[in-house]
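The instructor's notes for this session suggest beginning with a concrete chain rather than abstract definitions. Hand out the sequence below and ask the class to guess, before any prediction is shown, which regions might be ordered.
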Amino acid sequence: MTSPGEVLHSTRKRLGTTVTTVPPSTLIAAVVLVLVVVAVATPGLLATQSAFAVDLGQTLAPPSSSHWLGTDSVGRDLYSRIIWGTRSSLSIGIGAMALALVIALILGFVAALSPRWLGEPVNRLLDIFLAFPVLLLALLFVALMGPSELSLIIAVGIGSAPGYARLVRAQALGVRDSAYVEAARALGHDRRTIFSQHIFPNAFRPLVALVALGVGQSIVWASGLSFLGLGVAPPSPEWGALLNSGKADITTAWWLEVMPGLAIVVTALAFTQIGRYIQDRSEGISH
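After discussion, reveal the predicted structure:
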């Protein structure tokens, strides 16, 4: 006798429908990102105090009911500072990723579609930049421009662009040699039309998931530079700046390093999980 579950499965199969379930890790990541967006848009809704409110009677207080994540060396509430710093950290991550993506699209398509006299030098330039770690390139640009939020965006964006440019080049080469592009050429379409209607959309679509992945990575790299004193300077509540300002008291106030570090890690993991989920869905992998 056929069970109701088997009947339901066979009916769905005949109808050609597929029920896709979202994994719990992706749901958790989505909740985290919703909270991040709320903290960016209306930080006062989540924060309990001002980011710069000083209370010298509560210096280096451990986490408690009055200060959920403790206080810093001048009595500022760490939880509120992390909430208020979300906007700066996320702005740096999104700005750096946007800059890296623009540079990567330009260099990647030039390397893949240009004549050899132009494409080959661009390829060699990408090889040279890929030989250097991202943070090393970012350190170079920050040293040249000086520490600031804008310099972090430019430094991390330029530092991570070569890797993304290689991916763009690989996607563009695959699409360029595809059958539908050959058919478009045979039908007499000009190069601009082929690029705008066939090559660009089909080469860019698989890279959409990288945007979410790249934002998380950019936040981590920018925070690392700020921790080294080469990013946004204290008393800014930007997460890397919080790590930098808490270094001197790490042996007596562990929460000054652990709590901002957790905020960076959790946010980066949330972006990474969402990016992987988008990538899996675009490749037709069911969960």
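Then share the key points. Residues 93 and 219 are 5 Å apart (CA to CA). The mean pLDDT is 86.
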